[in-house]
Amino acid sequence: MQYILLIYLVIAIGIFILPGWLKKHVGILLALVQTVFFVFFFSKIAEVANGNSISTLLYWIPQIGLNLEFSLTGLSLAFALLITGIGALVFLYASAYMKGYEGTDKFYFYLFLFGGAMLGLVLSGNLIQLFIFWELTSFLSFLLISFFHKKEESRKAAFQSLFVTAFGGLLLLSGIVLLGSVVDSYSVADWFAGSEMIKSSGLYLPGLMLILAGAFTKSAQFPFHFWLPGAMQAPTPVSAYLHSATMVKAGVFLLALLSPVLGGTMEWTYIITLVGVITMFLGAYFSITQTDLKAILAYTTISALGILILLIGIDTKLSIKAAILFLFVHAFYKAALFMVAGVIDKKTGTRELTKLGGLYRFMPITFVISVLALLSMAGLPPMLGFLGKELIYEAKVQSPGIASLVLILGVGGNTLMVAVSMYFMFKVFLGKQGAYPKLPNEKGWLFLLGPAVLALLSLLFGLSPTALGNSIVQPALSTIRKEMIDVELKLWHGFNDVFLLSLLTVLLGMGIFIIALTKKQFLIKWSRFNSQFFTIKFTDIFVQVLRGFLDFSARNTKRLQHGYHRFYILTVILFASAFLWFQVYVTRNWVLDSYFTLTPFYISGLVAIIICSTLYATITQSRIATIIGMGVTGYGISLIYLYYSAVDLAITQILVETLIVVMFVLVLQRLPRFAILSSRLTRVRDLIIALSFGSVMAVLALQALHVDFNHPVSDLMVKNSFLYAHGKNVVNVILVDFRALDTLGEVTVLVIAAMGVFVLLKTKKA
Amino acid sequence: MNSIILQLAAKYVRFLLIFFAFVALLRGHNYPGGGFIGGLLAALAIVYYSLAFDWRSVQKKLFVKPEGYLAVGFLMILLSFLPSVIQEETLMKGIWVSIPFGLLGQLKLGTPLLFDMGVFMAVIGVTLLFFFTLTKSR
Question: Which of A64, A111, A376, A538 has its CA 20 to 30 A from that of A34?
Fold first, then answer.
C-alpha cells in the first residue's frame, strides 16, 4: 500500500513535466489514475470482509515508536473508495471547470497530492503517521482554498481554515502522545489491545478531549464550524472533493477508528452526541437563510457532519451502521450538488439565489441531476438518502441517555433540510426566468458526467441497497464493532414509528417551504432575526482573539528584541558570567588551587607578550592597532598550542587569525571615524562586566586542571583511530569519522552564517 | 592596491599555497592537516591574490561563485553518508575500499576523505563569501 502513496507523489510531481499536448488533458489523465486505484481498492472488498484487514509494517524510527504501518480495513476501504471514486469524478469535472485559469498545474498538483495524503490518512495504522497525513491534508486544503490568492477573501478564508484545522491537529497530536504514553505505543493495534488500560487511566479524559478537539476542528463541528463556509472561496472542484466528500470527514474517520478504543464511556457518548446534535441543528438552521448556492451547501454540509459525529457518539451497532451508510449518502448527493452549483455559476455567471430561476428551460439535464440529488438530501424515497434518514431516525430512537433531545433536534434539522432542498430546487430551476448575467447552455459533457454518475448512484443504491450493504457497510461495521455483523438494508421498512417521524418531517418541511415561497419577506425577516439574536459571530471572535494574541506577542517581542546589538551582548555576557560564577561556587566553594607553571622560560615570555598585546588592544585609540594587538594575542596562543604539540590546532589558529585580521581591516574601512560617545559611567560599567567575564573564564581554565584525567575519552579514540578508521591523525579522524555529526553541524552553522552575512550586506543598499 | 612587489609575490605564492592546501587536505588523515586547514589555506591564497590585484578579476578566475563552492561542499558531505546508508550500516559510518597498485602498495579510499573534501570546499566557500561581500559592499 505504501507504493500507492509513492505513486501518488511521483505522479503529482510528474504533472509539471508533462508535454504540452498531454497537459491539456491532465484532468482526465488524473481521473484515469484515480479510477485505476478505485478498481484496485474495489478488488480488495472480499479480502477485508468480516473485519479482516491487510497490513504492512515498515520500520521508520522504531526508537520513538514511529513506524509506517498501513492497514486496509473495512473502514479504511470505505473511505478509500470514496476518495478514489469521487476523486476520479472530481478530476473529470475539474478538467472542464478549470479551463482558462492560470496556474492549473499547481491546482492539479495540490489536488492530486491531497488525494494521496487523504489515502495515507485512512490507511494509517500508526497514530503519529496518521497525524502527519492529517496535517498534510490541512495544509493542502489551505493551498487550495487560497488558489485565487489575488482575492483578499480567499487569503483570509484560507488562513482561517489553516489556523483552525492545524491548531486542532496539534491538539490531536498532544492527545495521541498523552494516551500513547499509557500503552507505550502509537500503533492502533496496540491501542486496541490496551483499550481497558487507557480507559481506566487518569489521562483518559484529557487525552479524549484533545483528540476530540482535533476531530471537531477538522470536521467543522460547533463551535469550530465557521471555517467551512469560508472555505467556499476555493474553486468548486475543491469544495466538492475536500470540503464535502473527503477531508472534512477525516474527523469522522478518526472517531470511528478510535471508537473501539475510547468509546463506550459516559464521557465519549455525551460529549460527542451533544456537539454533534448542536452542529446538526445549527448547520441546517443557518443554511435556509443563505442566498449563495455554495453557502447553502456549506451549511448543509456542516449539518451532515454533525449527524455523522452524533451517530458515532450514540455508539450502538445501529448508529454506526447508519453513520457508514450516511457517509456514502452524503458524499453522493453533496459532491453532485457542489458540482451542479459550480456548473450553474459557470454558465450563468452568478450563484446568488435571488438572481436565479427558471433554469430548467436551459439546463434540463442539470435539472434532473439536481432533483435526484436534492431528493436524496431531503431524505425522500426512493433515494439512498431516504434509507440513510430512516436508519438515522431508528438509531436516534434507540439512543441511550439523551434520546429525546437528539430526536427533537433531529426532526427539526431534517425538517429544515427538506425545506432547504425544495427551496433550492424551486428557486434555481423552476419559477420565472431570473436575471442572470449570461444566458446559460449545457455544453460540455465533462461538466455533467460527475454529478450525473453520483446522482444515479444515489438512485440505484436506493432501489437496491443490498450490494452496498454487503460489500461496503458490512466490512466497515465489522471493523469498528470488532465482531461479525450482518447488514441488511431495505428501502421499505414497514409502517412503524420511524416512518411516522419521516412523514412528520416531510410535512413540516413542506410547510416551511411553502411559507418561504409565498411570503417573500419571511426568509429576509428570519435572517434579520438571526443576525439580531445570534450576535456572537464566530468569525469575528476568531479574528479578535487572533489580533489580541498578535498584539500581545508583538509587545513582548519588542521588549526582548530591542534591536541594540550592544545590549544583546551585554545580556548574554552578564547571564553567562553570573551562572558560571555560581557554578564555580557550587562545585569548588571558591577554593582555587594554582599549581600551574610558567616554565620553561620562553612560555613565560610568550604569556607576557600575550598579556601586553591584549592590554594594548584595549587601551589604544587606533583601530588598526587594536586589530594588530589582537592578532599578536592569537598568534601567541597558537605558539602555546605548538609547544604542547597540538599541531593541527596551531595551524588552524594561525590561519584563522590571519583571515580575521584581513576581514577586520575590510570591515574597518566601512566604519566611521573613531570617537568616544559613551559616558565615563557606561565605560566603567562595561569594564566591570568585561573583567568579571574574563576572570570567570580564567577561573574556569584553572578549574579545568581538576578534571578527572584517569579515564579520558581520548585514549579510546587514540586506540581505535588507526584500527577502525584507518587514520593516524587522531584529530582529523575525530573530525571526519568519530564525530562526523558534529562536523556536519559545524559546516551547517558556517553555511547559515554565510547566508546571514550575504543577506545583511547585500540588502543594506536597498 | 598597486604594489608591484605584492603582485609579483602573489602570482607565485598562490600556487604554492594552493598546492599546500591540497597537500594538507590529502595527508590530513594521517599527519597534521585536513579539510579545514586545507580549506583555510586555499581561501587564504585567493584572498591574498585578490588583495594584490583587483577582486573582480579574481572572481572571474574562480569559475564558480563562492556560494557554489559552499553548495558543492555541503553536497559532498551529504554524499559521503550515502555508502553507509546503502550498506545498511549506522549512518555516517566510514566505508573504506583499497585499490591495489601493484608494487606501489595500495591506495585506501574511504568516505571520510570525501567528507573532508566537502569540508574543504565548504570552508573555501564560506571564507570567500565573507571576503567578497565585505570587499564588494565597500
Answer: A376
